[in-house]
Specification:
heterodimer, A: mainly alpha, MetI-like fold, 1% strand, B: 276 residues, mainly alpha
């Protein structure tokens, strides 16, 4: 049996079943559910056509969460693409204690996001340590998680803080491939730190910068736990993103059709990012 | 001396990375006689005590959460190793009809975020009776199955099998091995490093997973650590000493795991382990 022409299919079967049941069927179901109306009877949905999409595009909260998600992208992605590279360049200079720095900066990556969110909630407390800093500098204390102006940014800070170490390690691996002679040539020319890295490092690891940009964009689109633990999307939807709103409509309001229409929107956005990522930056990994 | 600014920046960033935990630890060690909202804030507790730890330990079943997390993460790792290796082998070493289609179908799952399909995944899990209201075993299976294999793992193993010289396989065929024996006895032992990478990254991912267990779990006895820790907020509403102590307690196992395996995480040799 194992030598027959069926052998490859037998090896693929177990993974195939799992992917079919928990990826492909749910994928098509998401699309299917988005055309059904569950709002009158949860057990007997009726065909709704594009009603859920029409409702979605007339819903101000949807635009709010879409906008919040894009703010998430615009704030978190540039910082996560640039700052870890800067740290990686610093650590890559064969300095003492490099391993210790790497361990400490990587620590937030490893710790459960729930614990990280709780730790920040404590820093952000009304009479917490951050407001102590703010007030001792002479400003009024800030409602980090309770003021609609700040809540989203306070949550974004946690996502950034938790991602820095991860992307730094990716950059460190990429930096190993930059030939040392190029840096030596720069030193002979008397180039300073900034010109050296802008003319040698950045062009050399451009593919990695692009990779980090797309990966961090995809993960920013999927943020959930930070928001759930810290703000539940509030106040006044100010920190609610697409994924959180899908969760709320699906599992709290049981509006399955509406939630699925929104999930389809999320799918389309993430697919665009993923296609760019796979075909432009990770071709080698998948040998396309 | 030239490197002093570099060290200052790195020390500053390192401190920022660990400060939220330091502050949490500090709060967890402060007794009732000390105001945890005192201005200026005190890092070193003046009313030092371990009682928050013993208090939260008595009220919360950490051992239970820990064991649940171990079962779920252990099962997820085991299934990922088996299923990814099995699926990666024909994709790397065999020619068969439909190979290209299979390849792209697996690649396509990378583009499907769990968050977008979680609702049907939940409905399917209910239909298959893989929830804790049926029984605990079904509950564990339901926690594990949606993450039992990933495209990431399959491609990682395919890559590993591609790196093995063809002669190894041919030697096996001459000896009369069938393809299962070649896979099990010859190829699998040669891809142990990739299996280790896959195991470690799957473990970390599964250990920290919050969204899925918080959707499917109904019984407190089935809570994994992240769900249990989140629940502390409701249990001890504003008792931050207990919440802090519980959060720190729950972090100890993964901290030990990280420190003992740190070379896998920070060496940068596992660039292939970048997860999307």
């Amino acid at each position: 049996m194992y030598n027959s022409k069926y052998a490859p299919y037998l090896f693929l079967l177990p993974a195939g079943i799992v992917l079919a049941v928990f990826f492909f069927i749910p994928f098509f179901q998401t699309v299917g559910l988005s055309f059904l109306d569950y709002s009158s009877d949860i057990y007997n949905p009726s065909f709704a056509g594009f009603q859920n999409y029409i409702k979605l595009f007339h819903n101000p909260v949807f635009y709010k969460v879409l906008w919040n998600t894009f703010i998430y992208l615009f704030v978190a992605v540039p910082i996560l693409a640039i700052f870890p590279l800067f740290l990686a360049v610093l650590i890559n200079q064969k300095i003492r204690g490099a391993t210790l720095y790497k361990i400490l900066i990587y620590l937030p990556v490893i710790v459960s996001i729930v614990v990280a969110a709780i730790a920040f909630k404590w820093l952000y407390a009304e009479q917490g340590i951050l407001n102590y800093l703010v007030t001792s500098l002479g400003f009024n204390s800030i409602g980090w998680l309770t003021d609609p102006k700040y809540a989203l940014y306070s949550v974004i800070i946690v996502t950034i803080w938790k991602g820095i170490g991860y992307y730094m390690i990716i950059y460190l691996a990429a930096l190993m491939s930059v030939p040392n002679e190029l840096y030596e040539a720069c030193d002979i020319d008397g180039a300073n730190f900034l010109t050296k890295h802008l003319t040698v490092t950045v062009p050399h690891i451009m593919p990695t910068i692009a990779l980090v940009t797309t990966i961090s964009a995809i993960s920013a689109m999927k943020v959930f736990t930070e928001i759930y633990v810290m703000t539940k999307g509030g106040p006044l939807n100010s920190s609610k993103t697409i994924v959180y709103y899908i969760y709320e409509r699906a599992f709290e309001n049981l509006d399955l059709g509406f939630a699925s229409a929104m999930a389809v929107v999320l799918l389309v956005i993430v697919m665009i990012f993923s296609l760019i990522n796979i075909f432009c930056f990770e071709r080698n990994k998948y040998q396309l | 001396m030239k490197k002093l600014p570099t060290h200052l920046i790195l020390i500053f960033v390192s401190l920022l990375s660990i400060f939220p935990f330091i502050w949490l630890i500090s709060t967890s060690l402060k007794g009732n006689a000390e105001n945890i909202f005192a201005y200026p804030p005190q890092i070193i507790p003046t009313d030092f005590t371990w009682s928050n730890y013993s208090g939260v330990w008595d009220k919360v079943n950490f051992i239970g959460y820990f064991l649940n997390s171990m079962i779920v993460a252990g099962g997820t790792v085991l299934l990922n190793l088996i299923l990814s290796a099995m699926a990666g082998y024909p994709l790397a070493r065999m020619e068969f009809k439909g190979k290209k289609v299979t390849f792209f179908a697996i690649l396509a799952t990378i583009m499907i975020p769990f968050q977008a399909i979680m609702l049907p995944v939940y409905l399917i899990t209910l239909k298959l009776h893989l929830v804790d209201s049926v029984n605990n075993f079904a509950g564990f299976i339901g926690l594990i199955m949606p993450f039992a294999v990933s495209a990431f793992g399959i491609f990682l193993m395919r890559q590993a099998f591609l790196g093995i010289p063809k002669e190894m396989e041919e030697a096996g065929i001459v000896d009369g091995c069938n393809s299962f024996q070649i896979f099990w006895k010859i190829l699998l032992p040669m891809v142990k490093p990739s299996l280790a990478v896959l195991a470690i990254f799957t473990f970390i991912g599964s250990w920290g997973e919050f969204l899925w267990p918080s959707i499917v779990l109904t019984k407190e006895a089935m809570y994994t650590l992240p769900v249990g820790v989140n629940n502390l907020q409701g249990m001890f509403s504003s008792n931050w000493r207990f919440i802090a102590a519980g959060s720190i307690l729950s972090t100890i196992p993964i901290l030990i795991f990280f420190l003992s395996m740190q070379r896998y995480f920070i060496s940068g040799e596992n660039e292939g382990a970048v997860k999307g």
